[in-house]
Amino acid sequence: MLEKQEMIRKSFNEDLANVTNTNMLNDLKVKYLGKKGLITELTSNMKELSIEERKEVGRVSNELKNELTNSLNALESELKLKELNEKLASEKIDISLPATKVPVGAPNVLEKVIEEVEELLMSMGYDVVDGPEIEEDKFNFEMLNIPKGHPARDAQDTFYIQDEEILLRSQTSPVQARTMLKGEGKTPIRMICPGKTYRRDDDDATHSHQFMQIEGLLVDKNISLSDLKGTFDAIAKKLFGEDCKTRFRPSYYQFTEPSVETDISCFVCKGEGCSLCKNTGWITVSGAGMVHPNVLRNCGYDPNEWSGFAFGFGAERLAMLKYGINDIRFFYQTDLRELSTFDRKDSE
Ligand code: DAH
Fold this sequence. Notes:
Blueprint: H1 2-18, H2 22-33, H3 38-42, H4 51-90, H5 109-123, E1 127-128, E2 134-136, H6 137-140, E3 160-162, E4 166-168, H7 174-183, E5 189-198, E6 210-220, H8 225-240, E7 246-253, E8 256-265, E9 282-291, H9 293-298, E10 307-314, H10 315-323, H11 330-333, H12 336-347
Helix pairs in contact: 1-4, 2-4, 5-8, 5-10
């Protein structure tokens, strides 16, 4: 019996000397102390022994069991500490290393210009509204005093979707009609509508089959052209600086009377004459005018009682002027390297 005990002790000590990690240690536990382990085996023939012998075997195996358990526990604590230290060392973070640079997105310059106009007009009590891009001929043209067959339609080469009735809106002006109809004769109406518009144009540096406009409309009592001038003046100053001057030139739109083209003083040459303003000292930025009595009437407002003004900016044109972009296709090619140059400009 004692011989067996000694053999197990010896083989255990040899095995223990080779253990280098907790997995090996667990295997060893199973080998010696497990249900089918070597110590259990010591007591496997108890039934065949006398009481005296049993006592002896019990004592010896318990002694061995305690001894092995103590050795295993001691080594276990040692290995656990070692493994923890190794883990900590391998996961150490070097906080002095420079961080990986994550590219940060920035607002699109077109969006920024639109937001500037929105912000200003909202502060003046305007609502920002939306309208459908797939529009009815009725709103895009007829309500705006442009009947079927009228030559004014030719200026806007329209994408028709279904017969002559459903189209991709060629301007944001239909939102004027929709807003007035919704207003059901109530006043004042103060709205702006930035949105996408579509025309059958060939794309080049100044044309795009899809572009954005910012429409504005105000309807109330005693509104005059000077109210339009004051509003336009405020927008121009907000976008192009306090020393920006403005002027109106007579123009023609079917849905406004009188109609004007609105100009800003050239911010490059300050009126001296340069290539941007084609030596005129002025740059045209929108169409505008007093809402035509027929349009007011079509939309449920008595022109004898109410008057209003409207304007329509080309959003890309504003952004091109403000950021010195000379090709409208820039906005739709989504080249991040080019777009990011405007972040830098803004943060300078
Ligand atoms: N809708 C016109 C266009 O696309 C622009 C415009 C002119 C809008 C005069 C207006 C306006 O509201 O009053 O050419």
